[in-house]
Amino acid sequence: xxxxxxxxxxxxxxxxxxxxxxxxxxxxxxxxxxxxxxxxxxxxxxxxxxxxxxxxxxxxxxxxxxxxxxxxxxxxxxxxxxxxxxxxxxxxxxxxxxxxxxxxxxxxxxxxxxxxxxxxxxxxxxxxxxxxxxxxxxxxxxxxxxxxxxxxxxxxxxxxxxxxxxxxxxxxxxxxxxxxxxxxxxxxxxxxxxxxxxxxxxxxxxxxxxxxxxxxxxxxxxxxxxxxxxxxxxx
Length: 235
Description:
By secondary structure, the protein is of the alpha/beta class. Helix content is 26%, strand content 34%. The strands form two sheets. The chain has a seven-stranded mixed beta sheet with strand order 3-2-1-4-5-12-11, with helices on both faces. Helix 5 (112-124) crosses helix 6 (202-211). The N and C termini lie far apart (39 Å).
């Protein structure tokens, strides 16, 4: 769906208050960052909804694995630079003062091996005194197997309904999402997409971050319900 229906993404998640979330992030950055730099990297930036609000306060760069999501982000965020890259292996050949990885994007690395590589990669792209903020996916202790979910977008000219349930495969949460969408004067479309996200333990994540030369704080109350927030300061 991220490749073929990138523009649908913003509609189905239109209930999220990105402005409020971005303001909270800015406060955390101002409180905990220890250097004077202002370069911000959004990893897994999606369609750029956070960057839209952050672009006036920071020099922004966005990275996403999906070229289609980046196309949408470029139209939305005029003051940012964008690159297509995988967060596990990206090499942007520069350092940043702030790195953010939000909306549980980190879960898509799937394994602890990739999580370790990714966090080391974040640290390698971070200037001394800079911070990384990671919004995790759910931990295994919180994840509910078999939980039904429905999200709808009820616009004047387009209607979308998305339904899914949650399953477990080893340490992976799996979700097959089913969409019905209809636009004005068009037939109803049906499509689906499949997601696998790693269920990473909080203490193991903290340990990986500390081993990557980051001084870590964990906030139980993050931006979204039950997600928490990791903050790492580059030593």
